[in-house]
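Problem: given the chain below (1141 residues), write out its structure.
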Amino acid sequence: MIIKDIEYPELLIEAIKNDKLVIFCGAGISMSEPTNLPSFYQLSEKIAELTNKEKRNDESDEQYLGRVENLGHDVHSKVCDILSATQTQPNTNHEALIDFFKKDIRIVTTNYDSMLESALEKKGRKARIYSYPALPYGDKFNGIVHLHGEVANPQDIVLTDSDFGKSYMYHGNVTTFLRTLFESEYTVLFIGYSYNDIVMKYFTRSLPDLSGKKRYIFTSKDQASNYIPLGLTPIIHEKNNYKQIYDSLLRIANLVTRDYNSWSLRIKDISEEVPNKINDEFDFEIKEILNNIHYSDKFFSKIKSRDWAEYLFNKEYFDEIFSSNKIDDFGIQRIEWLSREIIINETDLFLKFCCDKDFILSKKLQIEIATIICNKNTKIEKIEKLINLIDFNNLDFMLVGRLLDVCYTNRPKLDFVANEIYSKSLSFVLNKNTIISTDIIGIDFKFENYIMEELWNKYKLFKNKYYINILNNISNQLYNLKRYKIIGFYVEEFEFASFYPRTEEYISNLEQFLIIFKELLLGMDDNNKEYWYKTYISSDIPILLRSSLLILRHMSNITGKEKLNLLKSNNIKILDISLKEELFWLYADIFPSLNSNDKEIFLDEIMNEEKLDENYTNKTYFYQKYNLLIWLQRFDENNQDIINKINSIKERYDYFKPLENPEKSIGPLTLRWGDAQLPYTETEIVNNLEKIIDELLSYEGDGFERAERITLIRKLEKICSENENFREKLIELLIKENEIDTDLWRGIIMSLEKSNLSEQKLIYTFNRVFFNPIFDIYNLEISQAIFSILDTRKSISDNLVDFFYEKINLLWKYSSNTEEKSLDYMTRALNSSKGNLALSLIKLIDISVKNSGEKYLEDRFKDFLEQMLNEEGYNDSSVVILGNASFFYSIDSDWCEKFILDKYRSNDDEILKMAWSGFVYQSFLYTEFALVFESIYHEAIKNINIFDENIRKKIFKGYMSLIFNFSENPMEDYIPNIFRDSMTEEILYLFYSELSLYIDNLDKFGKEEIFYKWIKAFLDRRSEGYPISASNQEKNLIIRFLVKFTEITIDFDNILSKFYKEFFVEQSTLWFFTYYIEITKDNADIINKIMILVTDQMINNTQDLIINTTKVYLKDIFKKVTKFGVNTDKFEKNLEFMNVN
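Solution.
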C-alpha cells in the first residue's frame, strides 16, 4: 500500500493491524527542531572540544570515547550533561511515534535522551519504561526500552567500545533482548538510523538471519542497497524529508487501527463516493471493510451504483460467487447486493460479468437468479436472458415449481425451458451411503414422491411436444447406471420396477417416478411411441424393455398376432418373470382379439415353454403357467381349452391355488418379500397333520409366489403354543419318523415360551424335546425359551429352579458365542446361547434368593458362575455376568469383589468393554454399591474413549449421576477425570448437557446451593484453564449454561469478565439465546449483561454473517430487556453496529 508516496509492504501492514509491530528509534528522531540533539558522531566531536583530545583517523567514535575514558575523563557524565540541557523538549517526531500506537506502546530506542517519555507525558499516556541493563524479554513486552541506557543513569549508558563489547557479547543483556525479539512474532521497523550509525553494525550481529523478513528500515533511495546485506528491507522515502515518514506513519495507523465506531463513520462516507478516483488507501479501506463480516454488511446496505459493481468486479471481490466453490457468508452478502441492486436494474452489466467469468456461477447465485425470475415484477425480456444462466439441478422443489409457473404464464415462449426444468426434477443419483450389499447400490431421487407428483401436475398442463426429450433424459440416466452393472453392481430398485404399482395408500419415490414415467410414455404422439418401442424392445436394460412393452400394448395400428410375433422375434419368453406385469397385461389385450386357431397355438406354447433357467423347479414353473392361464381366463371366461389346461395342471398339483393378483411381478416393490401365503391354512395343518407331514418337512417357498419356510415355522410355533395336543402329536410324529434334524423342532421349542403350562406339564414337555442332538442343534432356541419362561412365569418353585439349573448346566457344554462380530457386546450376548444361559442362571439365582428370603449366593451357583467367567477368550456370558455387578454385590459383596469388580480394574480393554457394555444395561447405582464402585467409575472416565459411542454416553451419564447424588467435592474427585487432554467434543457437550438437565430440575434454593457448593469454583477454574484450557466451544457452552442461574444472586460481572478474552461466539450460541431465554423482571439485567458479552464477541472476534432471523430475535430480546428498565445503551450500540435496527 502506498501512503504519502511511501510504499508499505503487506507484512508490515498486517503487523500494524494485529498490534505486532516494534519500532526502533535512532538519533535521527531527536535531531529535528526544537529538540536539536546531536548524533553519536556529533557527541564525540563535543567531547573532543571539552577534553582537548583529538580523534585519530583510524578510530571509530566509540573507540575514541573509550580511549578518552581510559585517560581519566568521565565521558559518560559529560555526554549526559550535553543531552539533558534544560531547554531540551520533544519534537513532532516523538509525538508522532506515541500517537502511532493506539493500544500498547512498543518502542525500542538507542537514544540516551528522555524525549519519548516527555512526549508520552504531554499526550497524557502512560507506559512502562525499561533501561539498560534491566531489559525485558524481547518476545513479550510493551513500553519504552532504552536499549543503551538513559541520561538519568550516566554510569549505565552504553557509550564506549568497552560498553558495546560487554552489552553486545553473546550472552550480553542487549544481545539476549535483541535475539528474543527478532525471533519472536513481532515485526521490527527502524526509524532515525543511517547506514553509517555505529549501532547498525552491532544490530546486524544480533540478527538470527539475513532474510530481511519482518525487519524494515526507512531510508532514502541512494542508501537502500546498503541495508539488504544487513538483513533489513528498505522502505523508501524522499531524501531528508523526515516529515513524510511521520505523516505516513500516522496516516497508516489511523487507517489500520480504527475501532468499529470509526469504521462505521468511514463506511458512511465511502458509500457516498463514486469509486473512480482509485488509490491505495481507498483500495485498502475497501479490502478491510470486505474482510470483516460486520463492516461489509453495513457497506453493502449503503452502496447502490453501477460504478460500485464494476469496481468490485474488477477488484475480484465477486470471484468467489462466479465459481463452483462453496459460498461463505461474505459471498452471500455479495449475492444479496447484486440481487438487490444489479441483476434486474443493470441486467446487461450483470450478463457481461457472467460472460467474463465463462458463465460459471455458484449454486447460491443461480438460486438467487431463479428467485428473482419468480418475482411477479420481472419482465419476460429479462427472464429469457437470466433463466439461461441457471443449472436447474441446483434448485429445490419450491423454486422448480415456481419456475414452471413462470414458464406456463409465458408459454409457448418458455415451453422448451419448462421441459429442461422438469427433466432435471426427475433425476436420480447413486447413494453410496445406502449400499445394500457388496453388489447392490441404492439410489436417491432428487425429490420425494409427493413433490414429484406436485411438479408433474404442473408440467402436464403443457403440451406433449417435449415429452420425448424428458424420456430420452431418463433413458440416458438408466444407461449410466448400466456402467455399474458391468463392473459388478446394480441398482435393485430398477431390477423389479413396475409400471403397474400396488393400489396402496403409500407410494414410494420409485413408484411415483414410474407413474410419471408411464404417463410420459403414454402421453407421446404415435410417431414417438413407435420410435420408443422399436428402440427399446431389444434393450438389455429391463426397465426400458418393459417400457417398450407398455407402449406396444397401446399401439392400436398393430394386430395382436403381430405383437406376439414381435415378442418371439426379440426372444422374449412368454413367462419371462422379469417382464411379468407388462407381458400379462399385453396378453390380456392380445388374447381376446386372436382367432380360435391362434388362441390354441398360444395356449400350447404356454404349456410347452421350457424353464427359463435351472433355478426354477418344475413345480414353481408350472405354478407360473397355472396363474397365467387363470389370468387369461378372466378375459375369455368360456374358453374350454384354458379350462382343460388348468385342470391338467391341477391333476398334477392339486394344492395349487390361484394368486389374488396373478399379474403382479415377483419383485420386492410390487409383491413384498414374505407377503406370499402358505398353501394351507392353520385348520388344514391341524386336521391333516399326518397327511401333510412329508410336505411340511420338505416345504420350500421363495417369499413371493409362496411364503418362505420361516413363515411355516412361525405358524407351527403359534399352533403349538395354543394347542398342546397338536404339539404332542407333532413331537410324536417327528420322533417316529426319526426326523431329528428338521427345523420343525424350532417351532415346537419356541412355542414353550408362550404356553401357559402347569409346572408338571412344563417339565414333561421340556423333557420331551430335551434330548441330543436336539439341545445341541437348537441350543440358542432352548436357552432363550428357558429365560423367557423364568422371566415371565408368575411363580417358580424350588423344584422348577432345580430342574432348570440341571438343564442349563447340560446346555452349557454345547453352548456357543455369537459369530456376528459387528454387533455390540450386549446384542451379541442376547443373541447367543451362552448369553441367554447366563441370563437364565442369574434369573434362577434371583428366584432362589426370593424364595428363601435370604441374600445368599449358593455354592452351586458360585461354581457355575466362576466356570462361565473362567472360560478362555471372549465369552458372551461374561458380558451378562459382569454387567450384573450391582445385583451380585447386593447378595454376596465379597464374592462380587473378587470375581466381578476385579475385572473392572483390568488393563485389558476387551474385558473392560465387555464388563461396561453389560453394566450400563443391567446394573444400577444404589448407595452402598456406588461408594464401592466410585473408584472404578473414575478409571472408566479416564479411559472413556476406548468404548463405543453409545456405551460412552451411558457410562458418562452414570458418572454425572454420581456427581449429583454422591460426591462431596466434585472439583477434586471428578472434574479432573473428565477434563483431560484426551477429552473429546462429544464428552464436553455431554457434560454440559447433563449438568444443565440436572439443574433444570432444581428449584431456586437448590440452584443456589449447588452453585456455591461447587459450580462457582468450577467456573473459576475453567476460566483459569484448570485442569486443561477451555476451548472456544466450551466457552460457548459455559455462556449458555450461565442462563440456568439468572434467578439467583451471583456476581455475573465477575464471571463474565473472565470469559471476554479470545472468545468466539458461535452462531448456534446466538441462536440459543435468542430462542430459549424467557426474560423476566428478575433476570433482565443479567440477560442484558450476557447479551452485551455475546454481541461484543460477535463484533470483535466472529466472522459469521448474522442471518436475518437472528437479527429479528436479537431485536426482540432487546425490546423485552428494555421494557424492564435496564440500561441497554451498550447493547443498543452493539446492535446498531451489527446492522440490527
